[in-house]
Amino acid sequence: MYAVEVDNLRKEFFRRDATRSGLRRKRKRVPALEGVSFAIERGECVAILGQNGSGKSTLVRLLSTLLLNDGGSARIFGHDVFAEQRVVQRLVNRVSVEASFFKKMSSEENLAYAARFYGMAPKETKDEIIRILQRVGFPTDRRHEGMEHLSRGMQQKVALARALLTSPVVLLLDEPTTGLDPRSKLEVQDFIREIRTTHDATILLCTHDLHEAEILSDRVGILDRGRLVALAPVTELKEAYDADTLEEAFFAATGRAFEEEDEDAERGVFA
Amino acid sequence: MSTIPGPMVFRGSLRHEAITFAGVVERNWYLIKRYFWWELAFFVWSLANTLTIVFIAKGIKAAGGQIDVNRATTTLLIGAVIWSYLGIVFEFMTETVAWERWEGTIEYTFMAPLRRSVHLFGVGVFAVVYGVFRSAVLFTVVAFFFGLHMPDANFIAAIAVLTVASASFIGVGTMTSVLPLISPEKGAQLGFVAQGTLLVISGVYYPVSVLPQWMQWLSTISPATYALRGIRRALLGGASLAGVWQDIWPLLIIGTVAMPLGLWVFGRGEVYAKKHGKLKRSG
Prior knowledge:
The structure holds two protein chains of two kinds. Chain A is an alpha/beta fold. Chain A has one domain: P-loop containing nucleotide triphosphate hydrolases (Rossmann fold, 3-Layer(aba) Sandwich). Chain A is built from ten helices and ten strands. In chain A, a hairpin with a 2-residue loop joins strand 9 and strand 10 (227-232). The model of chain A is unreliable at 265-271 (pLDDT under 50). Chain B is an all-alpha fold. Chain B is built from twelve helices and no strands. In chain B, helix 3 packs antiparallel against helix 4, helix 3 (36-62) crosses helix 6 and helix 6 crosses helix 7. Chain B is globular. Chains A and B meet through helix 2 and helix 3 of A and helix 1, helix 2, helix 5 and helix 12 of B.
């Protein structure tokens, strides 16, 4: 059984157009994912590379049960993501580019209530929160401070702690190091490596950091305008596209340089 | 090595539901603590608003009107306090989504294995407990300020009416809380429209009988109508539990319909939000 199994997954959004038809504004169909298929083995780390608007966040949000599909299927350890949402929710957790906390509440308070939502009682979390904050390199003497007083790097460490506190078997990382300073970025990347060795977690890492994808993952997928155009270990990708670097492989696979903005990046606005 | 749980592990786990319910209450308690000064400011605003309304009774007397000032003052005070209470319950319910969207936590809450009924009921119960506490303080402060006498008041009957009415308020609040879910830009404002409509039709400051006939018909489906009438009966007329039964039974019916209907409406709204990508933070 695969940890994650996605088959011909489709999702589209509708954007209101400036033009009107009678009293109603016209709506434009914006495809976000078009027939994406892949599978991830238990314990594997797969990175999905793509520009802004390529559909990375839509994929993560679909697997997190935050979106409903328009076609195809997705399974987490055999459970249908869209039909068995509560079971899937217990198996999955997520770290996104925004840390997303109640800013006035402390890290300890944010972690405590989040853990309750996963059925963890106060006696289970009392010591566990301190232990997990230590593990992510968060200074535990600051656990009573409001999140608004913490740096972006610190907040992202708390976000990692929140995801791990609930012992997910599938971890969805949606650009977890974007916007972090170099030191915080390295710390978060080190921690992701540690999770793989100690936590028996399957990881789907969506990123637009080529280096991060290369050093952290077993296989790299290239998502372009909602289509998964390649998925293979980095060495095989380079061989397949006769490229010396992952950036060159990306260019060969998509026909565009990695830094280029997707001209239809409005997908990202909806996704 | 962790095992992969199947559906049976979570099905029917009362302990899990109790803990998640406690988590919702716990989170709201943290927020009240952390936003204490905001809460204090809102309380002072409610107090000033209530005093302004209650002074109307003295104003009518001063302008030459013939009224029983003590009775009119108490009538207005009950209206203002119940309105304030309803506002707290609706505010908490509506902000179930709106506040989370603003803070950016909405995605984490809605991807957690938290049964929506437990989630919304947890918010509702906290709102009711906090609302009763704040309204009781408001009532006491204003009653002392005006030196009100309520020698016949039956507080037990009044609390019974408020308790039964609260189930309906949670149900109606759940229906309005779906608005920010399906319309991130306009939803919270539409919640105020629903709240304002209840204010007009429920006889908060005047008897329902002064309303046009079509509004009187609408008032019969508003739980606030029966809550206000029953509480006034208990506090002004000293009605016993049996005396307020005529207001309690309609509240029981409205509550029985409103709670499941509210959950159903919210469930439909959640499906719509997941279909159209609206379950996400603002900005």
